[in-house]
Amino acid sequence: MCDLHDQHEHDIPAMSGPALSRRRIMQLLGAAGVTGAVMTAEADPAMAASADVTPAGYTAPEGLAEDSPAKTAALGWIASNEARITGLNAEIWENAELSLREWKSSLAEAAFLEKAGFDVEFGTAGFPTAFTATYTYGKGGPALGFSGEYDALPGLSQNKGVGHHDPREYIHDPFAPSYGPGHGCGHSALGTAAAAAAAAVAQAAQKHKLPVTVKFFGSTAEETLIGKTYAVSKGVYEGLDAFLDWHPSTANATGWGSTTAMTAVTFTFLGVAGHGGTPLGNKSALDAAVMMATMSEFLREENLAPSGRLHWVINNGGDIPNVTPEIAEISYYVREGSPARVQVLLDKVIAVSEAAAKASQTTVRHRITSACWNQLPAKSFAELLHENMRQIGPPKFGADAHRLAKELQESLGLPQQGMHDKIGELTAPNPVFMGGGSTDVADISWNVPTVSMGAALAPIGTKMHTWSTAACAAAAPGQAAVVAAAKYLAATAVDLLTQPARLKAIKDEFAERTKGLQWKTALPDGYEPPMYEPPQWFLAKTGQKWPPENITWPPQRVVSKEKFSSLGPELAPQK
Known about the structure:
It is a single chain. This protein is α+β, with helices and mostly antiparallel strands and about 575 residues long. The protein contains 18 helices and 13 strands. Helix 4 (about 70-80) runs antiparallel to helix 16 (about 475-500). It starts with about 20 loop residues before the first helix and ends in a 33-residue tail after the last helix.
């Protein structure tokens, strides 16, 4: 969930926009491939449930968030533990561990919560670096969930606080120089702020005798949208009354728009290796992957609505030009407004893969690596969160934060506006869904009322998934954002404890939106999530055994058994 203007994996949707005429709305509906609201409700209940029906002239309500001794205690706990909170963010930023391999980062976050009195259990849904931390005070109180992530992105290494591109880890390969991983999406701050909010709510509940169960879900592999989607399918989030989520952004805002549903799929082409100098009869798997990439681009004009997204990367294309690649892999993210619309587009992409295999005389197989729904909005929840954000105020960016932001903006050719130091207005979403980013929090939102918000960690005009975000995540901008985000989440959660009517309204809206709709995971039958074998020290420290029961280990090997291509009968020698 992130930037209002720059959506990506786990972004908050576009939440505001100009008023549109009825004619323009109908034009956009047609452009998005939706012929009318009635058809949508009957044929695509997921889109209907997430649609917005807010009348024109919406004004955000006031008087929802209330001061209370418990809220004061929660915010005070965050203020008095600010050094610990920003220290955890910095520690996870330094680790910069990739999806499914967040060994040190998950341990650091779990230790923070254990010190705050939480019981921690690793191995949630079978993922070694996923954990569930639980704190219970009293009996009969609501169960509140918080979302924590801590994975970095490949290739986005950047030195902290440096206003130009300066990779912290540079890989000196003479044939393929590259950069190490970095927190270009700010998940070091995301998990830290959520953990701080959970701890603050637990401390305030105990001090003011408010029955509650606080559950913090340390989630692996958000960047690949695997961790939560699979965990939801295994019932990990059952029993919650509300779920609070945030994501680093370039703005401070919340809302109740939706996100795109998404399926991630990897295609493996198998051919026959051979010497590049004598290529006749070889079968290049890379040729197949390139053909697929080229053909899939032709889907854009007539098969990809404005609400859809289709992007790909060749993640295995061979090692050296003098060996015809025998195996090649190309991975796609297929996005649309609902799981049903994703499936239609995915079927077309699969057909393209089969055509590429036939043309290249290779074989192809595909595997779904992840799949998630579009997010279910929660208007009343967003209204409560927004008022808390407004009362607390924007992150406290000092001169250092604005200086770094302007240096980065200059380096990237952007207007030097610094950091977003206001709370964005709460406005209704655009009446027509035009696509954007995806999040595995979406699957949670169909099972428990969920709110999401963004806090400015990166400069105005920049984007997530960049080295510039990594420069900010544990520097002055990120350290201010992590404290502010923790306060926004904690204050909203305390309101749910002290104002049962607010929680009831949120749950009533959820029940109304999901009436007659049964969520079912978008993951295929028999799905086994990808995993990496943990180091022995990590297994010992977390009390886990390998492998978990829900996967086959070792995975099945992918080995080509293709034969050389026939060139036909031998040519007779010339006389």
